[in-house]
Amino acid sequence: MQLLKVFSGTAGSAVKKIKEEEMEEFDGVRCRGEAVESFVKSLVAGAGASEESAAAVARALTDASMRAVDTHGVRLTPHYLRGLKAGRIKPNPTVRIERLSPAVVHVDADDGLGHLASYRGIEAGIEVARENGIAAVAIGRSTHHGATGVYTLTAARQGFAALGMTNADAIVAPHDGVKAFFGTNPITFAVPAESGNPLLLDMATSSIPLNRVLLRRDTGTDLPPEVAIDGKGEMTVDPFAAAALVPLGGANYGYKGAGLAVMVDMLCSAFTGMLHGARLPSFAGDDVTWPARLGHFFIIFDTGAFQPRQAFANRVAEFLADLRGQPARPGESVKAPGDPEWAALAERTANGLPIDAATWKTLGEFAQSYGCAVPDVIATTSAH
Amino acid sequence: MQLLKVFSGTAGSAVKKIKEEEMEEFDGVRCRGEAVESFVKSLVAGAGASEESAAAVARALTDASMRAVDTHGVRLTPHYLRGLKAGRIKPNPTVRIERLSPAVVHVDADDGLGHLASYRGIEAGIEVARENGIAAVAIGRSTHHGATGVYTLTAARQGFAALGMTNADAIVAPHDGVKAFFGTNPITFAVPAESGNPLLLDMATSSIPLNRVLLRRDTGTDLPPEVAIDGKGEMTVDPFAAAALVPLGGANYGYKGAGLAVMVDMLCSAFTGMLHGARLPSFAGDDVTWPARLGHFFIIFDTGAFQPRQAFANRVAEFLADLRGQPARPGESVKAPGDPEWAALAERTANGLPIDAATWKTLGEFAQSYGCAVPDVIATTSAH
User: ipTM surpassing 0.90, yes or no?
Assistant: First the structure.
C-alpha cells in the first residue's frame, strides 16, 4: 500500500491529540517565528534554491506554522530540501506570468517551488482584480506549495477576498471506489475584515489528512469512523489496514466531498493545462526525480467592485459577530473559520513557534551539512 | 421548533427510499415533461406572474424534476403560487442588470421570482466571460430560485463552466452550535463535456435537506446518524426531536461543512448587498408577506480563455473516463457528479415525469381555480 511509504518519519514524534479537528502538541522545541523563517530560508537556499524561491518557502511554511497548521508548516522543509536535491524541483525557475484574457492570468511555475509561483500568482491576480473586479489565476507546472490558505490569506491581508485550491497526487478514493484517485484537494476562502483577522477557511475535501493515519500507526490507536478504507473499499478504523482516505461525508455523504474534490481537480488540471490528480506522480513516494506538475487555481475578488467598501465591511463584521455570538453546546463556542488559528498565532507570537523533535533533528542535520546557523531555542515543549 | 412548521404537506406522499443519497419513488402520476412545463407555466401565470417570470419558473422546475431533483422540482410550484398570492414575490418585476466592473455584474431581482433573475444573470455572465475570460454575477433582492444547479447547467449547455451558490434562511446549525444559523447553502459546479452530458455537481452544504426530516416523520423511521441536532445541540436520529440540521461532516468534521456554508453565505450576502442567512425572513414559515431578499452568486468561466478549446475538452474527457473507470465496491460503480441525474433524465424522457400524489392534487386545485388545463396522465406510479 502506498500509504505505508509516504512521509515515513515525519509523523514519528510523540503527539498529544487535543481535539480531532484541532492542533496538536508535541515534544520538541520553540523558537521565535522570525528566527525560524530565517532558518528555513537559509536551508532552502543551502539546498540550491534561488534567494526568492527560498524566501517564498520560508514565508509560507512559517506563516502556516505560526497559525498551528503544523501539517503544512515547517515540518515540510525536509521534503522540499530532498526535492531540490533530487532534481524534482528546479532551484532557480523562471516563473512566467501571462495574461490570457482581461481577467485571466496563467502562471507557469517552471517546475520551481510552488510557494514562489503562488505568491507571484496572488500578486498578479490582485492587480488584475483591481482593474476587472475579479481575476482568475491558473498556475501550472508547479510543485507542492504548502498550505493553500497561506495565499488566500495573503490576498485578504491586502484587502482582497480570495478563493483557492490545489490538486495533488492520489490519496483519497472516490465515493464507492476502492482505491485512491483524488488528492486531499483543499479549498480555501478568505475575506478581509475591517478590524481584526480575516475570515479564513482552509480545508481538505477529505475528512482527515494522511498524516493523521501515520500518527495513529505510531500511537497504536484507532482512526475515527468513516475516514479511510481498506484495500477492498470497506471502511476501516485500523490505521494499518487503511489503503486510502475517503472524501468528506463518509459512508453516506462522501459523494459530496468527492464532488468537491472533482471541482478542485478540474480547476487545477483542465484549466491550468496540467493532469488530474490520479495521473500525477506521487508527491511523497520514493521517486522524487519527476517534476510534480501540480496545478493551483485562485480567484481574487476586489470587494469594492461588488459593494461600497464600507457597506461590505459592515456586512462582514455583522456576519462574524452574529456567528461568533451563536449559542453553543456546553463547553464549546461557535467559531468563524480561522478563529482557532488566530488564537494559535497570538500564542505562538508570544511563546515561540514549536517544532517537533523529529523535524528539529532532521533540520539540524541539514543545517550542519549546509553550514547554516540554527536558531536559538527559547523553550522546550512536551506532549505529556 | 421551526422545523415543525415548514413545508408541512409536501412531504406527505408515500415515498420509497431507493438509497440515502439518491432519488425517491413515490405514489403519483407521470406526464410528459413538456406538458408539465406548460402546466407549471400556466399556473404561475395564473397566479399573476408575467409571461417571462412564469416561463422561467416552469423551465427551472421542470429541468430539476426531469433530472430527479424532485426536492427542488415541480413539487415547489405551490410554494411560488402562494408567495405570489401573498405579495411576497413581485409578479412583474423589473430585473436590472448593471455592470459594476469589467468582469462583475450585479443583478437586482426586484423581489421577483429568483428563477428569472438567475437565468438573466447567467446570460449576462456568459457575455461578460466571453470578453474577460471570467465573470462574477452577484444577484440581490431575489427570492428562492429552485435548484441552483439548474443555472450552472444552463451555462454548461452553452459551453461555459460555472460555479454557483445561494444563501437561504436558517435551518442548519453552526458546528458546535445549538440552533439554526445557515441555510442549506448549496454549491454547484458545472463543466461542459465535448460529448455527452456536462459534469454537474449540485450539493447542499448540510448532509441532508430539510425535506428528509419531514419524510422520516411521515414514515416513522429514524434519521441517519449525525445529520441533525435536538434543541440542546445534541445529535439526534429522532426526526421529531430534530431542531436543526448539521453541516456536512457530522460530529467530527462538521466544521468543514460549516466553513463551506460560511463561504456561500458571505458571497451571497456581503457581495450582493443582502443580509446573511440568519437575518433573512423564513422561506417557508407562516408569514409569506415579507420579501425574501435572497442573494445568489455565480462565476462563469470561458474555458477557451484558459486553455486551447480542444486541449481543455480532451482533459475533461480523460478525467471523466478515468473517474468512471475506477474500480468500485461490489454492486456499486464510481460515478461523476451528475451521472445519476443523466440516468434519470433518460428514464423520465422515455417514461414521463413523475409527480407525487399530494403535489398533483394541490396543482389540480390551483388549476381549477385559475382555469388552467391539466396535462394528460400517461402513467401512474407507485412506491410499493
Answer: yes
